[in-house]
Design goal:
Layout lengths: L5 E5 L4 H7 L2 H4 L5 E4 L2 H8 L8 H17 L19 H11 L3 H13 L8 H10 L4 H8 L2 H17 L6 E4 L2 E4 L4 H9 L1
Helix pairs in contact: 3-9, 5-6, 5-7, 5-8, 5-9, 6-7, 7-8
């Protein structure tokens, strides 16, 4: 087991991060720190237009994601209404920070991904996010309060700013010391770097 610390940067709006989240812990030889960040804020800050927002690349990207899911024996990918433009909600990300505080962050991450990309449900609805949190054993009223708390909002901003400072330009990204491994297809590269 390596003692090098790896950070898994992700946003639940990203289907590639969904695919990575399902295997990141088993692929890396060390348990990474799961860090939700606001991808919408990140791309706005760095002036990037991702493939999902480009008409000429969206269909090919969606087809590749569907194929990877099929190859891995996962359920068929369903796209939430309004994806991707309406998927950059901070609501589920704030709920995740609360969930990590209570030892349920990974569970809620995977539950939100399931609802988004297996059930095709948008995550910008407070009731959807609260329902997912309750399914993971969290108190719904506390989640509702947490997503509105200034401290949680500030933590999400700080995490996103730190990712930008480290050079993260997309999700999923594994950050390892000064190295960044961007993409679901780079997890094995990150694993080799961690083990080196």
């Amino acid at each position: 087991m390596s003692d090098r610390r790896a950070t898994f940067y992700y946003d639940v709006s990203s289907p590639y991060a969904y695919l990575a989240a399902l295997r990141v812990d088993e692929t890396l030889p060390t348990e990474p720190d799961w860090q939700p960040i606001a991808f919408g804020a990140l791309i706005q800050e760095i002036g990037k237009v991702p493939w999902s927002l480009r008409d000429e690349t969206r269909a090919a990207g969606q087809a590749e994601i569907a194929e990877r899911a099929r190859e891995r024996g996962l359920p068929a990918v369903r796209w939430p209404p309004g994806w991707p433009a309406e998927s950059y909600s901070v609501l589920p990300l704030r709920a995740l920070l609360h969930a990590f505080d209570h030892g349920r962050g990974k569970e809620l991450s995977l539950e939100l991904y399931r609802r988004a990309f297996v059930d095709g449900i948008a995550l910008d609805d407070p009731e959807v996010v609260t329902g997912a949190a309750e399914a993971c054993g969290l108190d719904g009223e506390r989640v509702r309060a947490a997503v509105a708390a200034p401290e949680i909002k500030a933590r999400l901003r700080a995490a996103t700013d730190e990712a930008i400072r480290r050079g993260v330009t997309g999700v999923p990204t594994i950050a390892l010391d000064g190295e960044l491994f961007w993409g679901d297809d780079r997890l094995e590269d990150a694993a080799r770097a961690v083990a080196a």
